[in-house]
């Protein structure tokens, strides 16, 4: 039987094959947004078994296990690791139509040289074979095998960044591991843990944050702390984009209300969030950072499961709130003073692709190629259809050639084949258009474009 993950997988034309094999394949990876744990990288985590490496924190897989009728004790519960893995193997034959069928077999092939299709019949053999290889395949080795040049983790402003510092000073590991500033807890004033987080920040900086000015001072100090340790970008989960113009005095009063646990109106929340996002954007701009806006998640849909398991366990969805006006006002508030930093916009609702892309074009400039980016298809959209729509939408209304390419957005060390998946699809889309006569069969032109999207654009854009 021919290997399922073969050399020309997804490459449906000779042009696509040449572009991938001669240009995309060997480019290093820049993973500028992920959720890997820098402590696990520094300590070179050794995995107990395939379940530990593959399933223990992957809510993509958990969602589909639940959809297939697997009970929670085999997903996040206390069943033995092997039994949990066998339950995943039951699901895999039912994944046809879902990218996890591809990702599953890519990961088995690329890291463990396993060509077998995973099913209940093959699962025990695969489990034993992979576990033997995991004796020597540690976290760092998996990163090295994937040819990863730079990793940017996702870090709270209160983080010590001690593991990043240790990695920086470790000459034995060549991949750069940099922090990324994620101040969601400073922005989400309406959530129940806001006051608790402010107290945590207060302890980190060593003084009371009794006023908005002191709070902003503390945030600025943490930005400087991150910057001194190599941070070059921030990330914001803007599940709902909110902006309303407000004076510093108005926002100071809103901050004091929140700290006294008084109820905030929707208008209070819009004013606070808009003001703080503009404040943060100006600070990023001063330091030459890139800001990332991840727009449109609808989180923790099941209150029951949130109470049982906590957040980020597979109970989120796509939001359908309107984004055009508040996002344009937010970007314009920064642009009007010449302080709009380089910005990557990701929209989780595919309905909003053209909204973000056409808005992006209104704020380009400053002599910076692709200053405002439309980010890769994200989360529920990093499928063949989602990535194809993102690539074609960006090509239709922007400069695809300046695109900074793929990221993993993952907590798993085995997720790097997603970059290969994206590159193969990119080459296939370009190859299809060349075959149709839309563009010339010019490999000097198109090969360079593919190399840039795969690696060089991100390296330049983020100043790596």
How would you describe the overall organization of this protein?
The protein is α/β, with parallel strands linked by helices and about 475 residues long. It folds into two domains: about 15-45 and about 155-460, Metal-dependent hydrolases (TIM Barrel), CATH 3.20.20; about 45-135, Orthogonal Bundle (uronate isomerase, domain 2, chain A). The chain is about 50% helix and about 10% strand. It contains 20 helices and nine strands. Helix 1 (about 15-25) packs across helix 19 (about 415-435), helix 13 (about 250-260) crosses helix 14 (about 265-285) and helix 17 (about 355-360) runs parallel beside helix 18 (about 385-395). The longest helix is centred in the middle third of the chain and has 22 residues, at about 265-285. The radius of gyration is 23 Å and the shape is globular. The two termini are about 45 Å apart.
List its salient traits:
about 475 residues; alpha/beta; TIM Barrel; 2 domains; 3-stranded parallel sheet; 20 helices; about 10% strand; globular
Q: What's a quick, concise take on this entry?
A:
The chain is of the alpha/beta class. The protein has 20 helices and nine strands. It folds into two domains: 14-46 and 153-461, TIM Barrel (Alpha-Beta Barrel), CATH 3.20.20.140; 47-137, uronate isomerase, domain 2, chain A, CATH 1.10.2020.10.
């Amino acid at each position: 039987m021919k290997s399922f993950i073969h050399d020309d997988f997804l490459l449906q034309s000779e042009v696509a094959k040449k572009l991938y094999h001669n240009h995309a394949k060997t480019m290093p990876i820049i993973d500028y947004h992920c959720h890997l744990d820098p402590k696990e990288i520094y300590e070179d985590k050794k995995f107990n078994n395939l379940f530990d490496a593959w399933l223990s924190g992957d809510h993509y897989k958990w969602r589909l296990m639940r959809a297939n009728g697997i009970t929670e004790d085999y997903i996040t519960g206390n069943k033995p690791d092997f039994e949990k893995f066998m339950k995943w193997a039951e699901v895999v034959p039912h994944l046809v139509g879902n990218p996890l069928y591809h990702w599953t077999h890519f990961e088995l092939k690329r890291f463990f040289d396993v060509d077998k299709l995973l099913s209940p019949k093959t699962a025990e053999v695969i489990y034993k074979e992979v576990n033997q290889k995991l004796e020597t395949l540690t976290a760092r080795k998996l990163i090295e095998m994937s040819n990863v040049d730079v990793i940017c983790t996702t870090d709270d402003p209160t983080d010590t960044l001690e593991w990043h510092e240790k990695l920086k000073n470790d000459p034995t590991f060549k991949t750069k591991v940099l922090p990324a500033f994620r101040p969601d807890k400073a922005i989400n004033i309406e959530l129940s843990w806001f006051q608790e987080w402010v107290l945590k920040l207060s302890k980190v900086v060593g003084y009371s944050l009794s006023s908005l000015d002191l709070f902003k001072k503390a945030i600025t100090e943490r930005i400087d702390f991150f910057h001194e340790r190599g941070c070059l970008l921030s990330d914001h989960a803007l599940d709902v984009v909110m902006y309303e113009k407000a004076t510093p005095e108005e926002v100071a009063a809103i901050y004091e209300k929140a700290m006294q646990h008084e109820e905030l109106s929707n208008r209070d929340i819009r004013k606070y969030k808009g003001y703080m996002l503009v404040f943060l954007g100006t600070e990023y701009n001063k330091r030459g950072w890139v800001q990332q806006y991840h727009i449109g998640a609808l989180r923790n849909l099941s209150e029951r499961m949130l109470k049982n398991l906590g957040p980020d366990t597979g109970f989120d969805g796509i939001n359908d709130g309107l984004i055009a006006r508040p996002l344009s006002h937010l970007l314009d508030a920064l642009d009007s003073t010449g302080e709009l930093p380089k910005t990557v916009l990701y929209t989780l609702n595919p309905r909003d692709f053209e909204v973000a892309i056409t808005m992006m074009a209104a704020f380009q400039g400053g002599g910076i190629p692709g200053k405002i980016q439309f980010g890769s298809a994200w989360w529920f959209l990093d499928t063949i259809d989602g990535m194809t729509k993102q690539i074609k939408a960006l090509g239709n209304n922007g400069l695809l050639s300046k695109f900074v390419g793929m990221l993993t957005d993952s907590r798993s060390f085995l997720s790097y084949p997603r970059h290969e998946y994206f590159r193969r699809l990119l080459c296939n889309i370009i190859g299809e258009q060349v075959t149709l006569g839309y563009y010339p069969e010019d490999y000097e032109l198109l090969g360079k474009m593919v190399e840039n999207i795969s690696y060089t654009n991100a390296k330049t854009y983020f100043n790596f």
